[in-house]
Amino acid sequence: MSIHPLPPPKAPTGLGRLPVAQWFVLLGVLAAVTFVAGVVIVLTMSTQAAALNPSPDLAAHLSRLNAALIVVFALLLGLGVGLVATVRYAVLKPIDQLTAQVRTVAGGDFDHDLHVDRPAELAELSSHIDSMRARIVSAWRVATDQAEELRRSNGELEQFAYVASHDLQEPLRKVASFTQMLEQRYGPQLDERARQYIHFAVDGAKRMQLLINDLLDFSRVGRVTGERSVVDSGAALDRALENLSATIEDAEATVTRDELPPVSGNELQLTQLFQNLIENAVKFRSEAPPRVHIGVRRDGDMWEFSCSDNGIGVEPKYADRIFLIFQRLHPRDVYPGTGIGLALCRKIVEYHGGQLWLDGEGGDGATFRWTLPMVGGEG
Ligand SMILES: Nc1ncnc2c1ncn2[C@@H]1O[C@H](COP(=O)(O)OP(=O)(O)O)[C@@H](O)[C@H]1O
Ligand SMILES: [Mg+2]
């Protein structure tokens, strides 16, 4: 179980800054001073009265009054001591016990029982806090188990996708190359229709190869725990542009960029991220020559990147759908593709602890935004 460090307690304000015990000491000192003053005044006055030589009757009354006052003072003293003991043992000590127990729980020992048996109010409070603790802990355990189960089944799925796509490659390669050989070797002996069938078969096999390669890339993110380090995102962008140089040149596209910061991540995956987004920006172009801008700004302890283009844009209602695997908005003969690019991008960004989304306010064209963690200690 993960344990968060115990945050410092909130500082009390105003008169509440003084702990209850100190309030009692203060009041106790005041009561003691009053008590001593009372005793001194009574003694002084009775000495003065005796010095006046009162009649025997009056002297008898005075000594009875003295005795009564001594009894009253003794009672007050006894009550005071009783009060101090009560507050000390019935209130302050149980509060201390409860505080220590709560501190233990807050410090990470979530199975520690919270219980004080007196006074009644604190006993009730502690039992409520304890049942709250027990319920939160059991809900948390269920959530942890479910997360663990989810992680496990996700891992299995990824493993399955990887093995399936990896093992499918070989027979597929065979199908594609032998159909091609069939065409080359026996092409002249076949009629037009047979050649068309072979062409469809080759085309299908090639498309499947593309799909399988993309699927492999997709299943590799996170499964192959790519190394994380300080990556210059500008260098990742350079590499992506290099890989896309032919595409960019063909489309007469212009790619501009802000100065890009270092981030904490995996260089290969960040290159894939830039490459897929820029490839889309160039592919889904409008009539005008494509213009793509890669921007960056700071957002708290993350960098927020953007890739905006002047292409055909995405209708806001498809803003979520385009990130699903194999989901495309256009027929393949108009804009070729497998529909994995954005799903892969989102997976890469999420694997890095960020988020990727389509900016609805992008104006013309499409703007994708994503966040990536700053290099530790920065900012
Ligand atoms: N820059 C963009 N401009 C317009 N539409 C886009 C852009 N990027 C992605 N899309 C839409 O999102 C869909 C999914 O993109 P993606 O997953 O990369 O698949 P693919 O590029 O193979 O079609 C695309 O088919 C397209 O409809
Ligand atoms: Mg794409």
In short:
With 379 residues, this protein is α+β, with helices and mostly antiparallel strands. The radius of gyration is 41 Å and the shape is elongated. The model has no long low-confidence stretch (mean pLDDT 89).
Count of distinct structural domains: 3
In the CATH hierarchy, the architecture of the largest domain is: 2-Layer Sandwich
- Top-tier CATH class of the largest domain: Alpha Beta
Name of the CATH homologous superfamily of the largest domain? Histidine kinase-like ATPase, C-terminal domain
Shape: elongated
Sheet with most strands: strand arrangement: 2-4-5-7-6
CATH topology of the largest domain: Heat Shock Protein 90
N-end to C-end Cα span = 30 Å
Largest sheet: 5 strands, mixed
How many β strands by DSSP?
7
Radius of gyration: 41 Å
Domain Histidine kinase: 163-376
Transmembrane segments: 20-44, 65-91
GO molecular function, one term: phosphorelay sensor kinase activity
Protein name: histidine kinase
Kindly describe this structure.
This protein is α+β, with helices and mostly antiparallel strands and 379 residues long. The protein folds into 3 domains: 17-112; 154-220; 229-373, Heat Shock Protein 90, CATH 3.30.565.10. It contains 8 helices and 7 strands. Helix 3 packs antiparallel against helix 4 (192-220) and helix 5 (233-243) packs across helix 7. The protein binds adenosine-5'-diphosphate (ADP) and magnesium ion (MG). Residues 276, 280-281, 284, 309, 311-314, 322, 328-330, 337-343, 366 line the site of adenosine-5'-diphosphate.
